[in-house]
Model the fold of this input.
Amino acid sequence: MPHRSVPARARLLATGLAAVCAAALGPAATSTAATHDDELQRQAQQLVDTPGGPPGVIALLRRDGKTHVVRAGVADLATGRRPHIDDHMRIASTAKAFSGAVALSLVDRHALRLDDTLGERLPRLPKAWHRVSLGQLLDHTSGLPDFSESAGFRAALAADPRHHFDSRRLLDYVADQPLRFSPGSRYQYSNSDNIAVALMAEAVTGTPYEKLLRTLVYRPLGLHDTSLPQGYRMPEPYLHGYDVSPPAPPADVSEVFGVSGAWASGGIISTPADMTRFIRGYAGGALYGKDVVHAQRNWIDGASQPQGPGRNSAGLAIFRYDTRCGVVLGHTGNFPGYTQLIAATPDGRRSLTFSVTTQINEALKPELLMKMRAVQEDFVCALLRK
Done:
């Protein structure tokens, strides 16, 4: 397939990556026939057919013990293979929900408290940051400068998109910077927040974050195809992610970037099936007790990146999406080649995983983002329909 060279395309995409860096399915059979099949299918296909749109879309709607799958386009332009619920994909900033799951599980176990500060748990970090609390990290009111916006981080990524960062030293890129605002005074989404969350979890347990994910999240929720790698390789089979920048043909960027520079803020690889299991348990409060669930759902003004459907508000590593048809809780994310939405009802009984294979956000494709959010809201309405 003709395309611009990968290194050239990678340099153009590095800024986009820097801005990025979140109940079981059961044995029920997948439903392929439902009242609103044709309309959902039409809308998914329209996204694929839109100039600059994704080569592939896959959505899983889980309700009433059944999983309904909507697919449009292809998982791989080279082969024409269709997307599948067990295809691996980069989950982008929906990985922030996983770091939230780890931290809140530790809060539930009294290993951490929401008012624990960076100064108490990570005294090596700059003194100017020491009064930032875990709760402020989780709801993006910390004021931490975003490492992924730093000149040094972006230069390293532009020079080598597969550069192997020390994930536990990512905050060093902004260690000379003060807080952007007084902690707790306002909302500002920052990739640094979830790096600090993971480091706090490691500090209080003496356990690598990757192992905490396996113990506190993957195992309890039955996630079998989810991992946090350091390199650039994708496990087979996978949804190929593309840079779609007409008039140039789509370029496969699935393995252009390493993810050590995203780590707890966006480095996880999973599948639509596993993400459905995750969001049903996470949004439904299956990982911790009612007191922690209540604290997590203390909503403030704030939106996920990119914005999810309807009106967005922020909790602790979770967002509330108020749509015209009702409320779902979840997270979004975008990464070169991928854009994600995971959402579920507050009881976890109904869920939506919505994955597309190109990066869509306000900076790169504002009109397509608006269109995608409208489609996502229609999918939420289908999910919530009685």
Notes: The first helix runs from residue 6 to 18.
